[in-house]
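R.M. (postdoc): so does anyone remember the format we settled on? I'll just put the structure tokens first.
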């Protein structure tokens, strides 16, 4: 219920104004978002690379309402790809199609994505298209498949909480598309998504078993030690070597687990968000773990920035 409430509050523009203008909450959000500009994100990426992890940079933003905003987002992404190359970083980019204008027009959005994926292809880099709420699943998959027909520098995300995901995976595997598997971060009705966490976890494992032996380089994005241990065991039992897939985790979450996996020789990619539009991303992180909300509330009351 708390998760549902927080995901609902993520849509509130009043709460957004209050949280994003309050100095204490801005500092607390830095636990998940290293900065509002590209420069601190590049610095965070450099540090991750030094620790043996690769990175995906996400310029925060979603549901833009004008073509100008979508074009600005597209330029931020091509700019980020250029900066990654100039700094010789081991990093790619992740983006949301509603940030590139999906609410305005599919064709316009597909064109913005095409420009970003072409730049990534020219730089021998990669673009991951995040998966948003279920209202966008079909259109996201259609646009990704269209982009993938031109370049393999693009992949997408599948959410284990959706009943449809096994079929979507079969479809994407048939065109050789790279997939990031996640549990799913949005509020979805039980008609289309598993309501119980244990069923989402079981489906995550089932889908992971489809992805790993496929011969395509996929990503398992989770902080859940059970999912990770199950994947490690499955890979070992099926002779899938450590360089054939990667784990992905969010910046600032389970950094202990990130380092442990690197020490054990696994590939780890850290998802680093940056930008001014961090409110919905921040609310989804609070919704994922009640302890984060408690930590946030305690520090807000104290007006401090004590780290957990
Ligand atoms: C790299 C990456 C990309 C993602 N991209 C998408 C996407 O495109 N679309 C989408 O719908 N979702 C995306 N997600 C979010 C995902 O769907 C889940 O909401 C999120 O990863 C939490 O699920 P979990 O697998 O970590 O497991 P959970 O069962 O939620 O958590 C397992 C354990 O992980 C730790 N943990 C999890 N979340 C947090 C947190 N916020 N703070 C502190 N500890 C935490 C806790 O120890 C918890 O017990 C992404 C996640 C990652 C890591």
């Amino acid at each position: 219920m708390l998760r549902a409430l927080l995901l609902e509050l993520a849509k509130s523009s009043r709460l957004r104004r209050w949280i994003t203008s309050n100095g204490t909450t801005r500092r607390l959000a830095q636990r998940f978002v290293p900065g509002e500009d590209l420069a601190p994100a590049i610095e965070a990426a450099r540090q991750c690379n030094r620790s043996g992890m690769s990175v995906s940079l996400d310029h925060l933003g979603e549901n833009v309402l004008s073509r100008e905003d979508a074009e600005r987002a597209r330029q931020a992404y091509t700019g980020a790809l250029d900066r990654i190359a100039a700094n010789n970083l081991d990093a790619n980019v992740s983006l949301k199609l509603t940030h590139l204008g999906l609410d305005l027009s599919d064709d316009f959005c597909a064109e913005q994505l095409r420009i970003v994926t072409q730049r990534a292809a020219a730089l021998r880099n990669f673009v991951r298209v995040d998966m948003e709420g279920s209202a966008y699943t079909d259109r996201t998959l259609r646009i990704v498949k269209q982009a993938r027909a031109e370049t393999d520098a693009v992949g997408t995300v599948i959410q284990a909480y959706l009943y449809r995901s096994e079929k979507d995976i079969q479809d994407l595997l048939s065109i050789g598309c790279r997939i990031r598997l996640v549990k799913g971060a949005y509020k979805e009705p039980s008609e289309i998504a598993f309501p119980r966490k244990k069923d989402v976890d079981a489906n995550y494992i089932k889908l992971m078993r489809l992805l790993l032996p496929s011969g395509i380089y996929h990503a398992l994005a989770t902080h859940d030690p059970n999912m990770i241990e199950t994947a490690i065991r499955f890979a070992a039992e099926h002779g899938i070597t450590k360089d054939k897939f990667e784990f992905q985790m969010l910046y600032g979450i389970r950094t202990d687990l990130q380092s442990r996996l690197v020490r054990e020789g696994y590939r780890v990619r850290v998802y680093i968000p940056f930008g001014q539009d961090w409110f919905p991303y921040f609310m989804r992180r609070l919704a994922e773990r009640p302890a984060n909300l408690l930590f946030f509330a305690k520090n807000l009351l104290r007006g401090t920035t004590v780290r957990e």
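R.M.: ...and that's the designed sequence above, right after the tokens. Also worth knowing: Confidence is low (pLDDT under 50) at residues 304-308. Residues 130-131, 157, 159, 182-186, 221-224, 248-250, 253-254, 271, 285, 288-289, 292 surround flavin-adenine dinucleotide (CB under 6 Å).
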